[in-house]
C-alpha cells in the first residue's frame, strides 16, 4: 500500500512526523532545560558546548558525506551500503583516536582550563555517531520518518531527561551533561540499528569507493563549511570571552534552535529525500520550494516578533534571574529566525538536485562571515559577537536564496512578494503583543501575567486573521488550512471507526 501512495502524500506525512518529532523534542528540551539550569551554572553549559562543537565538526569530516550519498543516489545496491558502512567505521575509529590524543592541545588552544578530560570522555561519540549515520540514512531513503522521530525523542528523553537530570541533582556538575550526551548518542545508535540494520563490512569494496567518496566529498565540504559556520562562533566566544559568556550564548542559540527545528528542520529533512526522487523534474521542485518558503515565512515572522517582545519575561520566568545575561543575545538571534530557518529549505533543494560544489562554496563563505562577525563583534562583548553572527546568518540566507533562484529560475518578484506579505501580517499580530507587554511592565505585574496576557493577545489576533481574513495569508494559507482540515478528518474517522470483532 505504501508504494501506491503519491509522493506528495508521503512527503506531507513525513513532515507531519518530523513535526511531531521536533515538537516532542521542544517540549522535552524545554522541560529538561528548566530543570538543568536550576542545578547547573552557565560555565558548565559553556564547557560542554565547546566540546560538542569540536566533536560535531570532527564527525562531519570523518563521515566524508557518504551517508548523504546513500540518500541521494537513485539506485542503491548492497555493495554500496557495505562500502559506506566500512568507510564510516574506519574513519570513526581514526577520528576517535585523533580527538582523544589531542585533548590537552585543544584545552590549551581554547584557553578553557579543565576541559581536556571531557574531550577524552566524549571522543567515542565520533565512532558511534559515524556508524549510526548509515542506518539513519537508509531510514530516510525509505521515508520512514515516524521511526526516526521516535528514536530522536526517546534517546533525548533518556540521555538528558533521565540520566543527565538525575546526575545533576546528585551534584555531578558538568559531568552530568557529559554522561547524558554519551548515553543519548549510544542509545540512539542502538535504536537505529535495531530498526534498519545495514549490510556491513570492515573494508570497502574498491569498485564502490569512488562512487561514494567523490560525490561525498562535495557534500562533506559543504557540510563542513556549514558546521563550521554554525559552530565556530561558540569556539570564538569561548576563547575570547570565557566559559560563562559561552554558556549564555550557547543557551540563547539553543532557544533559537527550538523554533528553527520546529519550522525549518522538519520541512528540510523531508524535502531532501523527497525532492531527490524528482530531481530531474525542476518545475515540480520549484513549486515545492516556493510553497515551503511561503509556509516558513508565514510561521516564523510572527513567532520571532512575539518572542523578541516577551524575551525578558520569558528568560526570567523560565530560567531564573541568573540567566538574564542571555536576554539581549537571544533577542538578536531571534531577529534572524526567518533567515536561519528559510536557508535550510534552499539547502535541501541544492542537496536534492546534486549542486554540491556550488553549495560548498557558499557554506565556506558563510563560515568566513561568522568567524569575522564573531571575532570583530567580540570587541563589544557578547552582544557584539551575537550581532556579528546574526549578520552572517542573513548573508547566508541571501546567498542560498540566490543560488536556488539561478537553478530553478524562480522570479525575484515572487519571493519578495511572499516575504513582504508575511512581514505585514507579522506586524499586525505583534502590535497587540507589544502593547500588552508594555502595559504590563508599566503597571509592574508579574512576568507570568505579562506572558499570559501578551500570548493571549497574539493568539486572539492570529485566530481572527486566520478564520476571518485568511486572504491575507495568500493561496498557501488556504492550502495549509485545507490540509489541516483534511488530516484532522482522517484522524477522526480512524478514531471513530468501529472495531470489528472476529
How much of the sequence lies in strands comes to under 5%
Taking the alpha carbons of the first and last residues, their distance comes to 23 Å
CA gyration radius, whole angstroms: 23 Å
Task: Tell the overall outline.
Answer: globular
Give the biggest sheet: none
H/I helix tally = 19
Average pLDDT over all residues:
80
Roughly what percent helix? over 70%
Structural class designation:
mainly alpha
Q: Which regions are unreliable across 5 or more consecutive residues at pLDDT < 50? A: 1-8
- Strand element count: 0
SSE order, one letter for each helix or strand? HHHHHHHHHHHHHHHHHHH
List the helices and strands and how they pair.
Elements: H1 7-37, H2 42-63, H3 66-72, H4 78-101, H5 103-110, H6 116-122, H7 124-141, H8 145-169, H9 174-195, H10 206-241, H11 243-276, H12 282-318, H13 327-334, H14 337-352, H15 356-377, H16 381-408, H17 412-443, H18 447-468, H19 475-496
Helix pairs in contact: 1-8, 1-11, 2-4, 2-7, 2-10, 2-11, 3-7, 3-10, 4-7, 4-10, 5-6, 7-9, 8-9, 10-11, 10-15, 11-12, 11-13, 11-14, 12-13, 12-14, 12-17, 12-18, 13-16, 14-16, 15-16, 17-18
Amino acid at each position: 500500500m505504501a508504494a501506491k501512495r503519491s509522493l506528495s502524500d508521503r512527503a506531507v506525512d513525513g513532515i507531519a512526523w518530523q513535526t511531531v518529532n521536533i515538537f516532542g523534542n521542544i517540549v522535552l528540551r524545554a522541560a529538561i532545560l528548566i530543570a538543568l539550569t536550576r542545578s547547573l551554572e552557565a560555565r558548565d553549559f559553556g564547557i560542554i558546548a565547546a566540546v560538542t562543537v569540536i566533536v560535531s565538526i570532527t564527525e562531519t569530516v570523518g563521515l566524508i558525506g557518504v551517508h548523504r550519498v546513500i540518500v541521494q543516489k537513485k539506485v542503491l545496491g548492497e555493495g554500496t551500503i557495505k562500502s559506506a558502512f566500512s568507510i564510516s567505521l574506519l574513519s570513526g575509529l581514526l577520528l576517535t583516536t585523533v580527538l582523544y590524543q589531542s585533548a590537552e592541545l585543544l584545552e590549551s588552544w581554547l584557553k578553557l582550563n579543565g576541559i581536556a578530560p571531557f574531550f577524552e570522555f566524549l571522543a567515542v561519540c565520533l565512532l558511534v555517531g559515524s556508524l549510526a549515520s548509515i542506518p539513519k540514512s537508509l531510514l530516510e531513503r525509505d521515508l520512514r520518518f515516524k521511526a526516526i522521530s521516535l528514536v530522536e525523542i526517546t534517546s533525548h528523553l533518556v540521555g538528558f531527561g533521565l540520566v543527565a537530570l538525575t546526575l545533576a541533582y546528585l551534584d555531578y556538575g558538568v559531568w552530568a551533561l557529559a554522561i547524558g550526551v554519551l548515553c543519548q548518542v549510544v542509545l540512539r545508535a542502538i535504536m537505529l540499528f535495531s530498526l534498519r540494520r545495514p549490510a556491513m563490512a570492515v573494508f570497502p569494496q574498491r569498485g564502490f569507493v569512488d562512487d561514494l567518496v567523490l560525490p561525498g566529498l562535495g557534500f562533506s565540504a559543504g557540510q563542513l563549511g556549514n558546521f563550521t559556520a554554525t559552530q565556530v562562533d561558540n569556539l570564538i566566544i569561548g576563547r575570547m570571552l570565557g566559559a560563562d559568556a559561552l554558556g549564555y550564548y550557547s543557551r540563547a542559540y539553543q532557544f533559537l534552535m527550538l523554533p528553527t527545528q520546529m519550522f525549518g528542520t522538519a520541512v528540510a529533512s523531508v524535502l531532501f529525500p523527497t525532492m531527490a526522487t524528482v530531481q530531474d523534474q525542476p518545475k515540480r521542485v520549484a513549486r515545492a520550494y516556493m510553497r515551503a518558503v511561503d509556509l516558513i515565512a508565514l510561521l516564523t515572522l510572527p513567532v520571532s516578533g512575539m518572542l523578541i517582545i516577551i524575551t525578558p519575561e520569558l528568560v526570567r520566568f523560565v530560567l531564573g534571574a541568573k540567566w538574564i545575561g542571555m536576554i539581549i543575545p537571544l533577542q538578536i538571534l531571534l531577529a534572524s529566525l526567518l533567515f536561519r530557518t528559510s536557508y535550510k529549505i534552499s539547502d535541501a533543494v541544492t542537496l536534492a538536485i546534486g549542486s554540491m560544489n556550488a553549495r560548498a562554496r557558499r557554506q565556506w563563505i558563510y563560515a568566513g562571515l561568522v568567524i569575522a562577525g564573531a571575532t570583530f563583534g567580540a570587541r563589544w562583548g557578547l552582544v557584539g559577537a551575537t550581532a556579528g553572527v546574526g549578520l552572517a546568518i542573513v548573508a547566508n540566507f541571501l546567498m542560498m536564496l540566490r543560488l536556488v533562484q539561478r537553478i530553478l529560475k524562480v522570479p525575484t518578484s515572487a519571493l519578495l512578494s511572499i516575504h513582504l506579505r508575511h512581514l505585514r501580517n507579522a506586524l499586525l499580530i505583534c502590535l497587540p503583543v507589544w502593547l500588552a507587554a508594555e502595559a504590563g511592565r508599566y503597571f509592574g505585574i508579574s512576568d507570568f501575567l505579562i506572558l499570559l496576557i501578551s500570548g493571549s493577545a497574539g493568539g486572539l489576533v492570529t485566530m481572527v486573521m486566520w478564520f476571518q481574513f485568511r486572504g491575507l495569508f495568500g493561496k498557501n494559507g488556504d492550502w495549509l488550512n485545507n490540509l489541516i482540515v483534511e488530516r484532522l478528518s482522517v484522524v477522526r474517522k480512524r478514531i471513530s471507526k468501529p472495531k470489528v470483532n472476529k
